[in-house]
Write a structure and sequence with these properties.
By secondary structure, the chain is mainly alpha-helical. It is built from 21 helices and no strands. It is globular and about 65 Å long.
Amino acid sequence: MANLKSLLKDTAIYGLSSIVARFINYFLVPIQTKRFAASGGQYGIITNVYAYVSLLIILLTYGMETTFFRFMSKEGENPERVYSTTLRMVATTSLVFAAVVSVFLQPLANLMGYGDHPEYVWVMFITVDIDAFVAIPMAYLRYLHKPVKFASIQIFNIALNIVLNLLYLIVLPALEWNPFGIYDSQFTLEVVWVFYINIFCSFVKMLLLWKEIGGIRFGFDRAACKRMLSYAWPLLVMGLAGQLNQAASQILFPYFYDGSTEEAHTELGIYGACIKIAMIMVMITQAFRYAYEPFVFGKSKDKNSKETYAEAMKFFIIFTLLAFLAVIGYMDILRDLLIGESYWEGLRVVPIVMAAEIMFGIFFNLSFWYKLTDRTIWGAYFSGIGAVVLIVIDILFIPRFSYMACAWAGFAAYGVSMVISYFAGQKYFPVNYPLKSIAFYFLIAAVLFALMTQANAHLPIWAALLVNTLLLLVFVAVIIKRDLPLSSLPIIGKKFKK
């Protein structure tokens, strides 16, 4: 229980920063979707370019965050040298990537379908280059248990992005103020300025980490570099395959959609906007990951570690199901707050994508068995199989079903990866997960989801919200009754103890 409380504390701190940062970042969605109409396709371009970026950040960090934690806690390794070596490795590859992009910019832009706008490619690729480099000092803050600085930098960076987007998309056009000639005479909004804002914010983030970047002075350990690369390369393959499950649909969509490029960007923009509502699962998984990864490696030698992992899995599933039901229950409110009305037709993908993200979170929690036993290549196998499933479904069904194929492809991919990882893990690192309890919560959630869906479809908004709130409270009551009595909670728990 003490270990779980430690994990809960770190998850709360990192999770709060992650949730606050993502919540602030959500302001970009209504700002951009209400200023860029779905029919214009601009948000489809943003969705497509960011999909490439999400793959590149994996490629340019090549598993070094997880490798960093593994080697910092490994016997016989010098933590300062490990950090410096990691920083120098990622810095070198980032500089090489920047040079390659600069030399081959136009061919890359042509390949991506942006031959007339190579600036889209250059700006965002250099941005992700900077982000890959600063990922290591950010990981170092986690290693040092400095969640306040970590959270402050994350939140400030996103808030800066929001403010600059507000200025460009809303404030300056309303004032008819055109500093530096960034608008034409009609104050037409250009997608490229969204990307320029990104690169500026990434540069500011790097400056805020200047003290941690100074750790590069501790030198370079060639032998440690070789050992780290040997550990990291399967993580790179696994990471790329895993991210393909999230990004491949947005990358492939313009190539396989049965329509013009403009129509493809319109449809992709609708899909990209609506899945932002489902990203609450990504927030929870990311928050859990920030605390769980160092926690797992730190507790791996404890006698009761497997019991702790099993309990952590159960509570992760419980609270992601609670979040799932909350989003479904208050969909009408979230819809109005988060996305422009021209994108609402795509809301039917939200439950599918959220369910897929729950399975991805479970897959991540299962992944520790091959990380702790240094069998990281297994993660690459599982994610690779999932990626193949997703790509095949996308290629076969995007022409016929548009973005609905993307939603179901992700669902199938994560489901396959999760199932095969579980059975392999039980063979090499068996953990007695409380499967009956987990199945019970899934069953209850499925029944409540069906009831909420009917309420949303057939009742007035106020009545649906009332019914859904009562159903959500039923799920909370079940949690309290079965697994989380109020007396066990921190701070308020003492008021319920007998």
